[in-house]
Design brief:
Helix content: 10-25%
Low-confidence stretches: none
Radius of gyration: 20 Å
Strand content: over 45%
Number of helices: 4
Mean pLDDT: 90
Oligomer: single chain
Shape: globular
Largest sheet: 11 strands, mixed
Number of strands: 21
Distance between the termini: 39 Å
Amino acid sequence: MFYPLHKLLRHCSLFNNIPTKKEEKWHFSPLPEYLDREYKKSSCEHEDIPNKPKEDYWIYLKDGCVLELELPPSVHVKYLPFHLELNCFEDIEIYLHLDYSEQTFVDFRLNIILQEHVNLKTYYCHEGGKGSFIVNVSHIKLEPYATLLQTQTQNLSSDAVFILDNKIHLDTFSSVNNFSLLNEGEYIHNFIHADLHYQSKIDITSLLLSHNRQKSLFSCDINHLSDKSTSEVLSKQVVRDTSTCVFDATTKIFKETKATQAKQASHALLLDEGAHIHSKPHLEIYSDDLSASHGSTIGELDQEAISYLRSRGVNEQRSKEILINAFINDILEKIEEPRHKELIINRLGGGDE
């Protein structure tokens, strides 16, 4: 049975109320337009996995329900329908495969707890979801000296709606490195909220490849709550056709914090006249002892560079591809884990956009 979205959202973990256009981070969101669309509720019927993952440790989910997993005893697992909790006591690398059905409303919650000194590497891949509305809410807590390397990509249907909401708590001396590649779906919103404590560090990198009439939003709120905390936010967008990308980042440095470091940067490449980018890096500073910077650039392909390549026998289409790849490859260097980088490059088609 199918239900209008506004009925399904009543119990959604992300939305207690439908955001309004007055809420700045949702200003470009078409969410109200979807309220009368109909979706079926996701179910937790058991299904066989089409292809078992080859990695050592993995979790396979369908519409937010765990179908099968392979994890060591050092990871304590709790799962209910649409809710998964991982409590990690030793270093580990986990691959999460998230598959979605057609025209389905999915509201999935993931809780991760890293104990002291634990190093966790995670790779998420979202697939399917033709005509679906997908909400993923993550709550991640790092105890002192814990580290998290988080890589996320997706291969969703072009008409899927995909919303990520990540809440990250970093205790003293902990660190997070977050990389996301988002390039498929009718509407994508990746939101990150992070609270930093003494000498904690977060590095957030986002690559948005937008096309057709797609709307892609990346937004984050970072709170520096204690001394010597460090944050860096970097987003790149390649915007085609009549699509729209939004970068909206706020970093808040609280009063009486010392030796804080904060950076924000957004770089957009517009490839067509109908493409749009809205960029708003924002620093909110209540301390004098800090190092902070923010900036935004928006540009087109360098015509002189194209002319140079053409003079060397490269045709115009290939010249453009080379320049786009150079723009993209620069951000791929931010991926620390070689295997994760290889998977991202394969997702991009060997480095091509």
